[in-house]
Amino acid sequence: MNVSLRQLKVFMVVARSKNFSRAGAEIGLTQPAISRCINELEGQLGLRLVDRTTREVALTDAGITLAGSLDRVLDELEIALLQTHGAEARTTGRVRIGAAPTISATLLPRVLLASQATYPDIALALVDQMQRAVLDSVRAGDVDFGIVVAPQGADDLTTEHLMSEPFCLVCRSDHPLASQAAVHWSELSGENLVLLNQSSGSRPLIDRALTTQKVRGTITQELGHVSTIFRMVQEGLGVSVLPPLALPLPENSTLAVRPLLPAFERNIVLVRRKNRSLSPVAHTVWELIHRVVRERNKGFAMGAERPVAAAAPSGS
């Protein structure tokens, strides 16, 4: 059997794209060249791997079996080859990170600055998506890894705890609750609530807290962007419950932020595909994010920064 690495890589692109033309465009080969590679691979294996139609390509049972095993094998082989280059492979290259908006807005700028200062030859690309889209991108291999609220029902992924943070109240500074140093969840009863929508990883946790604390408020708006929530609250359309990473407040805002008691926290995790090792350069960035978070938490502990959940109202 004389199967080449090139044939296997071409097969995996075809298996993913389900189309010879799209596969050729992705890896810079003509459609006849793609077809020839697949024919040669099938000839070497003595198996039919794909069923061809006029438009699409469907994997046979043998093709599905091969693709399922080959994906991880090729990934590990590529990592092994990169590791032969030593330290350069760990500090040179491109890394794509998927992150939910309430995480990327505050945490990722710190990571980008730290990476530029420490690893100038690493190109970081942030893919800013809602939580569900981040998880899908991780599964599809469109990003190297993601940063999300700890997901439920994601046993096919590997997660690693990064940090925890309690939810807080955001309201106008002239709202009666803004006069308090902290607000109990039960005091939200009767309020109009402007919340993150269901595509946010935080929303199930907020709903759970509202239910546990028997809050009987009215959800008037469910939105995907924090900036829109700020605007709605600013206009007096309700109050909101947000994680501290969704802050700081807009410049010149007259909104107030207060801790909510008892504390209900969301856990932020790094997430990657299970049974798939990170490339050396992606692993370097993974560890860098841990360092950035540790330094951020140390700043809070030493008083260099204040946790945003306890911040004084801006403009009051």
UniProtKB/TrEMBL annotation:
UniProt keyword DNA-binding, yes or no:
yes
Q: Name one GO molecular function term.
A: DNA binding
Name of this chain's protein? LysR family transcriptional regulator
GO CC entries: cytosol
What Pfam family does this protein match (any one)? LysR_substrate
Superkingdom as given in the UniProt entry? Bacteria
- Tell me the keywords, alphabetical order: DNA-binding, Transcription, Transcription regulation
Indicate the segments forming the HTH lysR-type domain, all copies: 1-60
Q: Does the keyword Transcription apply?
A: yes
* Stated family: Belongs to the LysR transcriptional regulatory family.
Q: Which InterPro entries match?
A: HTH-type_LysR_regulators, LysR_HTH_N, LysR_subst-bd, WH-like_DNA-bd_sf, WH_DNA-bd_sf
